[in-house]
Amino acid sequence: MKTKVIAALLVLSAGAVFAQTVEVKDAWVRAAVPGQSGTGAFMSITAKEGTKLVGASSPVAGVAEVHEMKMEGDIMRMRAVPVLDLPAGTTVQLKPGGYHVMLMELRQALPKGSTVPLTLTFKDARGQESKVELKLPVAASAPGAAMPASGTPAAMHHKH
User: Fold this and answer.
1) Do 82 and 123 contact (CB within 8 A), yes or no?
2) pLDDT of residue 112
3) Dihedral sign (CA 139, 145, 147, 149)
4) Is 12 helix (H, G, I), strand (E, B) or coil?
5) pTM of the shown model
6) Planar angle of CA 139, 98, 75, nearest 5 degrees
7) What pLDDT score was predicted for residue 85?
8) 158 located within any domain
9) Is residue 68 part of a domain?
């Protein structure tokens, strides 16, 4: 029994050490009304060492994926990204109109002022996976940002 407890503590401490090498700031989730099937989570991620964001999950969504939005000609396209590189010391922005965590098959409305649990899965250069647990505030727009004008990419809702 004692060996299992020590092994569990070693696994937890290894994850904690790794988690400290990834910093997540300014994280938030866009509010979703009843019946809305998807929304996005946004944040800034900085890794001390070369790392990859390889997954996301949340109990409020049936599916959580890292997505990228970009212009192809005159059409805005969105696609899932199985791996997002996080170069050492470089802040990667997950923001409306760019990379973001897409929460789909929402199980409930996400009203402004509530919070959403989100787990991010990272893989370091040695192939070791670690998870970071977050509680993100739900807002209509980025905290501290002005509301985007109607019709701008940041104001548009996307569906799958």
Assistant:
1) no
2) 96
3) negative
4) helix
5) 0.76
6) 115
7) 96
8) no
9) yes
